[in-house]
């Protein structure tokens, strides 16, 4: 069954855009993107089942499932392959690597979802470009996007780091510096006006103020 797309403006999505809703079959039954409202979601795509790089990613994601659960973040995969291929692949991974894949995988044989998300354009004849990850907040807004080539595996550790930083900065009260990890210092948002930047309390580092992470 082809995915039902509720937004088919096939443009590349940007940070801050509302993630296009869709309804499609998955390895855990029919799902809609709206089913994930109220929690964070990492929606990631891969070009085909039974590929070596994507297999390594699925194994790592399965082993990190408890960390995603702790962050109240769901995982949702996507591939153009059929539901039956998805099931066979998952079974092979679980038997070969002794891990359990707890997250669903969407089937997208018509590439309708891939096109709606800008993973591939209307002229593409295959899914070779579909190596994207979308970090979607509880309101359904895209907060970060990453792309990887076919030959380079995604870092699950970096996915978790990005997700943790997005949750930390969601209030707008703090920023996170390069390579930030929980418990490390965070940054204060810079002063926005000359009058506040030159207050005696602002100091010489008004544009770069590290603060303790209050968690």
Account of the protein in words:
This protein is an alpha+beta fold. It has two domains: 166 residues, Glutaredoxin, CATH 3.40.30; 45 residues, no CATH class. It has six helices and ten strands. The protein has a five-stranded mixed β-sheet with strand order 6-5-4-7-8. The chain has a three-stranded antiparallel β-sheet with strand order 1-2-3.
Q: Can you summarize this structure?
A:
By secondary structure, the chain is an alpha+beta fold. 26% of the residues lie in helices and 18% in strands. It starts with a strand and ends with a strand.
Name a few traits of the molecule.
215 residues; alpha+beta; Glutaredoxin; 2 domains; 3-stranded antiparallel sheet; 6 helices; 26% helix; globular
